[in-house]
Amino acid sequence: MHANVGDHLMVEGHTVGEGRREGEVMEVRGDDGGPPYVVRWADGHEGLVYPGPDAHVVPTHG
Asked: Alpha-carbon distance 35 to 2, whole Å?
């Protein structure tokens, strides 16, 4: 997985009724854009994230 500051991290829900979580990558702490990432979630919470297989990065262009 590769991300840049400003990209969006999407984490799919695991159970029925659990929605997708979306957050903005605020800091990349891994080498060459790799995890972990500091992410600000839509609810304003920030945290250090090691994304699992249910996550993907949506690049921000421009």
From this structure: 8
Could you give the angle at the alpha carbon of 9 between the alpha carbons of 58 and 30, nearest 5°?
A: 105
- C-alpha 62/C-alpha 42 separation (Å) is 21
Beta strand 46-49 with 55-58 is unpaired
pLDDT for 48: 97
* pLDDT value at 26 more than 60: yes
Angle ∠(55,14,39) on CA atoms, nearest 5: 35
pLDDT at residue 13, rounded to an integer? 76
Are the C-beta atoms of residues 51 and 9 closer than 8 Å to each other? yes
Task: Kindly state the DSSP code that residue 61 receives in the 8-state scheme.
Answer: P
> Domain residue spans in the chain?
8-58
